Amino acid sequence: MIDALFTIEGKVALVTGGTTGIGRMIAAGFARRGAKTYITGRDAARTAEAAAEIDCIGLAADLETEDGAHALARAFAAVEPRLDILVNNAGVGEVPSIADATIAGWDRVMDVNLRSAFFLVQQLLPQLRASDGARIINIGSIGGLHIPNWEAYSYGVSKAALHHLTRALAKRLGKEGIGVNAIAPGPFPSKMHDTSSEATQRSIATYIPLGRAGTAEDMEGLAVFLASRAGAYVNGTTIPLDGGYIAAL
Prior knowledge:
Blueprint: H1 2-6, E1 12-15, H2 21-32, E2 36-41, H3 44-54, E3 57-60, H4 68-77, E4 85-88, H5 103-123, H6 125-129, E5 135-139, H7 153-173, E6 179-185, H8 198-207, H9 216-227, E7 238-241
Parallel strand pairs: 1-2, 1-4, 2-3, 4-5, 5-6, 6-7
């Protein structure tokens, strides 16, 4: 009974930005649990290499471009008639001061972190509707739930907007049996956050109640819950995965 409740075996999943960091953690967990998993990355060779290591399927996609989401949707639709799990994880960060911020940098963050997620959902609706209870998981950030001690204007705004988009999509697509939720990670090892140094670990221990950074198992566990029957009645929610940081503010 427990295994059936949390199984995703036989599901078809697409994880954007799945070559490194949080996306790779989720994709590897899905593939290990028997889901037919696709990952995306901007560099075709790197995506293929990561896919081979994870034992999944790679699709090259540049979600920063105006046609990026449409091109990815076309590539996916050419090989799969159904999509059970869509993880909008692709993201970029920028932390310039208020004086140094540029329009180009701002637009790049918004294009990848927000625009691509919406239009990928739009373009993949036929495949999502073909599933019996599809799930969309948007990867937000605790940076979209509070104001950090450093300047990260476009990044925080993009993630806060993604959390709001999650609620809006949940209200609309829930009527069709498609669940939409977001995960707001705290510190996890990624290209944007190095958690390996002793100094960083000591710092994390001062503001994370559990005293540590997140692990691949932590991320996999929540993603699998939201993607499986166990999470079927969770909809429109942004879940902080942060060791208690937001709760303790």
